[in-house]
Every structure is written in structure tokens, then in C-alpha cells.
Amino acid sequence: MEKLSSSWGRVFNKFWFVPAVCVLAAVVLAQSAVAVDRWLPEDMDSPWVVWIYAVGIDGSRAMLSAIGGSMLGVAATAFSITISVIATASSTYGPRLVHNFMADRGNQVVLGVLVSTFIYTLLVLRTIRSASDDLAQPFVPHLAVNLGVLMAVADVALVVYFIHHIADSVQVDTLVHGARRRLLAVIERWHPEETPEELVRTAGGRSGGGEVRAGAVGYVTGVDYERLRDHAETGDVVVELVPRVGDHVLAEEPLVRVWPEHRAEELEDRLRRCVQVGDSRSAHQDVRFAEQQVVELAVRALSPSTNDPYTAVNAIEQVASGIVTAVSRPLPGNTVVVDGVHRLRYGTVGIDEIVDMPFDQIRPHATGHVSVLLALVDLAARVEAASIHPSVQRQAREHVDVLLDQFRDSAPHPRDLARVEQHVRSRSAD
Questions:
Q1: For 330-333, which contacts have Cβ atoms below 8 Å and span 24 or more sequence positions?
Q2: Quick one: pLDDT at residue 46?
């Protein structure tokens, strides 16, 4: 059951999952509508048929053929547009944002509904019989044909939505806001306002222990900490997760350590299933990757080929919300205590790492853009003002000093240097 749950989570996030569900729904709807049509009266003059819609055999065939053929063509066009947008976003904003387009439910629903409309019309079309057919008496599923027409009308509205959605999704503001929301979500997960009672923070780890090797090559994309704790409690062992979420592991490297050592082999399979190792990182639990997506937008915007400092400033302003949230809250716990026993220990991302990332990665590219330097100074001031940790406040001031030193070494125009220094003084006074 544990393996099935993990596999289901991966399937649910695949690009093809929603279209597959839509196609299955179209098959069920087509069969159900035709079955109802066979049960309803066949008298073409009945009030029910006249009120709904009545058309001849040839007309129904022509209508369903037109709907099915056109919707398949529109689906192919929509898919081509999606691929083009993904390619553009990958080259302009970074390949790590491609997953966000693939996981977009709007794109999945549009493609799924268009393809399912084609499947629906195809299945209904095959049930229409004329007097010249040798198989049976004439039959036209009026209700199913009407549903096909309604689906075609809905598809037209859906195509209009898709054009708006796909155009909006490649705008810089949309990309930055989406990356900020993912960062805030993972920050809230790791840095809650109130730490659970069973979580404490401990320094260092135990030596020795039985090792459970990773058994696969890739990135740690997710960890089921509750199941790890349950296995540790049930097996009366102490468990330590060696890599952090987002770390790259090799098959022979240790994934989990267990005390007492001799219990490691017994619990190996169960503990390994609690840790997901994939080919690419995910922002669901990975703070560093979620922050990196925002920072990468700024770094790419400052590349010579793009030269868009305004986008870089926007990204710096957006990443501030996540950093300020993290530094304004207590350090996250890293040890789960059950009945007074330290059952599970794991590594967390330090606040210093969260604060360092935008400065260390953006600063080397920002010396030629005064507006970006000013935005970084503002970020440092915000972090210093919001932090409840004295070490982080000192860290923010150090980053400002490094910024000034690097900017002075680049031989800027005296006016630009005076502007940056004045801004630093004003923010320090605040």
C-alpha cells in the first residue's frame, strides 16, 4: 500500500493524467448517452424529440464528423502552441520552469477536453444506422448528437480561454508570481509560525549506525517524514536521514542510518520507500530549488543576450517575501521526539543558505546595473529589519558591504557610486 500510494502521487502529476481521465469520461458518456437514446421513444414526432433536437441520419453523421475532425485539428494546434511556449520559456527563463508549464492544469484540461470530444463523436458516430445498412434498423441517437453539439460549443469557449491562458502564462509577471507562490508555500511548510511539540532542534548527529543505501541515482525529491517516524517507533529504532531534500545521491551512498545497527537490513525496504529519488528536483519540499527558480529569473534577465534589469529587480522584490518569512520565524526543528525518545533526525536548509542565495548568485551579474544593486540593498534592509536572529542581521549587513566593495572595484561612474552609497546610508538609517 505504501508503494502504491507513492506511485499514485507520481502518476497524478504526469502531463497525460488529466487528458487520459477526460478520454475515459468521454467513453463512458458516449456509451451512456447512446444507451439512454435506445431506451427513449423512437417516434420522431414525439414532443420530447421535437423539443430537444431532431435531425436526419445523414445530417447527424455529417455534424458529428465535422465536430470530431475539427476538434482533433484544434487539439493538435493547441498542443503545438504548448510545445512552442515551453521551448520559448525554456530558452528565455530557464529549463527548470518547463515543469511548471507541464504541470499546469489549465493546459492539461484544454487538451484533454478537445481530445475527448473527438473520441466522443467517434463513438457516437459508429452507432448511427440507416435503412441501407445490413446490420439493424435505422437508428439515430438524438440525445448523444445533441450532447456532441453542446460539447463543441463548450470547446469553442475553451479554445478562447486557452489562447488567453497560454499568452498570460509566458508573461514575466506571471512566471515570477508563480515562482514566488511556490517559494512561500514551501517556506510555510518548513518554517511554521508554531513548531509542533514533537519537533525539537538538535545539533550534530550520532556516529556509526547501520546504513540503508539509496539504491538509485538521482535527487531526493520528497520524504514522507510521518512514515519514517512511524517505522522508527514501530521498530523501536532511531533513524537519521542522511541527505536533505534536493540533494543528489548515488546508488551506493547512504540514504538512512539506523540504530541499533543490526536492524537496518530488516527495515531497509520500508525506510527506502519513504524517500523519493527522482531524475529532477521538485519545489514541493525543496526550499533551495523553489528559491532558485526565482533567483534564476533574475540571473537570466541580467545575461548579455537578455539585458532586462527590470525583470531582475522584480524577481528580487518577489523573493524577498519568502526570505523575510523565513528569517522572522524560529529555526525549524530537525528531530522528532516520541515519548521522550529521539526517533527521527533529518537535515534542514539553514536560514543562512536562504539569505545567501540571491546575493551570491545575482551579485556577480549586477555590477553594471545600478537599479539591481539598489534592489539588493533594499532586500538586505528588509531581511535585517524582519529577522529575529542576530546572526542573520549581521549576515545582511555583510552582504551590503560586499556589494559596495565589488561595485567600487568595477570602476563605476562617480555619480552611480554616490547614488548607491547614499541609498545604503538611507536604508541603514531606517
A1: 330/191, 330/195, 330/388, 331/201, 331/389, 332/190, 332/191, 332/192, 332/195, 332/199, 332/201, 333/195, 333/196, 333/199, 333/200, 333/201
A2: 55
